[in-house]
Specification:
Oligomer: single chain
Number of helices: 18
Number of strands: 29
Largest sheet: 9 strands, mixed
Shape: globular
Distance between the termini: 66 Å
Strand order of the largest sheet: 1-9-10-11-12-20-16-15-14
Radius of gyration: 26 Å
CATH architecture of the largest domain: Alpha/alpha barrel
Structural class: alpha+beta
Number of domains: 2
Strand content: 15-25%
CATH topology of the largest domain: Glycosyltransferase
Amino acid sequence: MFSQALGAVALAVSCLVSVSTAITYSPVQPPSYPLAVRSPYLSAWIPGSEAASLSSNNAQFWAGNKLTWSVIARVNGSTYNLFGVASPPEGTTSATVTEATYTSTHSTFVVTAGSRQFTLDFFSPVSPKNYLRQSLPFSYLTVTLAAGDSSSVQIYSDIDSKWTGQTSDSTWSHTTSGSASVFQISGVGAATYAQNSDGQALWGSAVYATSGTSLSTQSGPISTVRKQFVNNGTLSDSYADWTPGGVVAFSHNLGTTADETAVTFAIGHVREESINYLGAAQTGYYRATYKETPAAVAYFLEDYDDANTESTKLDDLVQSTGISSYGTNYSDILALSVRQTYGGIEITIPNESLDTSDTRAFIKEISSDGNINTVDVIYATFPIFYILSPEYLKLLLAPIFDYMATSAYTKNYAVHEIGANYPNATGHPADGEEMPIEESGNVIFLAYAYQKATGNTDFANTYAAQLKTYATYLQDNGLYPAAQLSLNDALGALANQTNLAIKAAVGLATYGALIGDASYTTVGKEWGDKIWTDHLGTDANGTRFLIQYGITPWFLVYNHYPDLLFGLDAFPDEAYNATTNFYPTVRETAGVPLDGSLGWGQTNWQSFAAATVSGDARDIFISDLHAYMSNGLNSAPFSDRYWVEASGSYSAGESYSFRARPTLGSHFALAALSGANTWSS
């Protein structure tokens, strides 16, 4: 019996090895593939380690909870599970995955089912300057049958109410709009703006849609609906009442064909009242044109060709930008960062007026604490906007400045965020985090990034008085900061933090450039000399920056990145040369930590630092980030925090806590040095 067990184990291992070696990953196997990533509430992924067994693994919401989303195909009467069929129907076979690829907008998987080959293309458009296209809360799945022998082929796909965030009480409906067939699944009894414990929206509706001439539909218990397809290759066009675990489904009959043929599905999550901004409901920008969901998703399906053409150009731009900036390792990183960044943002207009002249953007601090429009999260993200969509900086900042202009905010420094819990932008809570110097410097950086990238002075002019207030705060408090939090809030509130003083110095120099007043720039440079040349914030020999004045350990400095980006020269070349020499000496097993007292690092600040150094130091930052992204140790959507050395049960290179945060825009910091606003739609 023991030898039989060993034989079974050996056979299982052999099978696993054969499966894992049969698949080709391009450009690498990432921690998680984006499948449908368009907003904080439409965010579906599959771990990279599960791509080889795509047929039996479920999509996951960014938090890791499973979602029902399947694709099944019949080829000459034999049924094959292509994707997401965790409990295969009797008489079905799992397809074999041979290729898995990602670009900045597409995740594609090639599978073999019997005598035919299929490609599943999960396409989440990123349209940096087309607000209508970008705001549509839907994503595409295209199933392409490759040319082959003359086979009779049918394609089936379904979803269930897990996409609504609740499975205990829902309703569903079916309608048509033009050629589009549309299912909507809605939770019952949920409060507007409510989320479940996994961060899913409990209000609104999940949407699944497709179009085609040989199409059948059905809703009902999952076993009933799938059995109908397996047995008949078509659905009954009947709609049973919602039932727990039930599905809504489509079936396309491709007929008998040897030609390449494709069908496209649209999956989404809609919320008419999407954001609560200071008590007034915001809605998606797209609703100014397509107010009703069936019409919106019908347009989305019709827009596929144009959206895909744009995505090809964007994919090419991201690829070429990465390669020209620092090679293929860097382009791999950038490509995986794009959808995650834009997928944390929603573009809105007032729900009552639908006035597109009053457009705003809101960003969720996904997985860390759920804040809305956190200023330092926007700062971490801004390099990608600087390159691709600088108007986003204004759209994200305006709600913050408008809130700070109300009587509800009375501080003389910039706010940390405008709401503790997305999507409620109802104001900074009394017990919320405050980072006076960090955020005051950040809003100045972001305002100038927008102005420098676009040439527009409208934002600086509109909010001139507030910007001056925050610059004055930096001038009065920045050189010797009082005990307060920094972006590394794990340190707690410390006085005389060097990185805060650097932010103040560069912030003042930036403010001088923003308003054309050289006196502020002069002060910023004087402070830069004190901090570096006079060793106020360094060790005695000027080899490294310290966490606090005169106190070790060292700290990874990222707040002088805007100094280089904007060409301000607040800090001398010696500061950048010294850190270039120093960082390689403190690299741990899997990367450079955030400071000398920690065993973990953050990819956003490592990316800022990589842009400020050269030579071997830059090599280390980029190669370590690429190795972390592709090491096979992680399954969460690209975490921006990871262990650089082993810690307890964690290995060096394992992610630490965070997942799916939009801060991956920081990975474009090096690329941004080559120029702003390089994308034109």
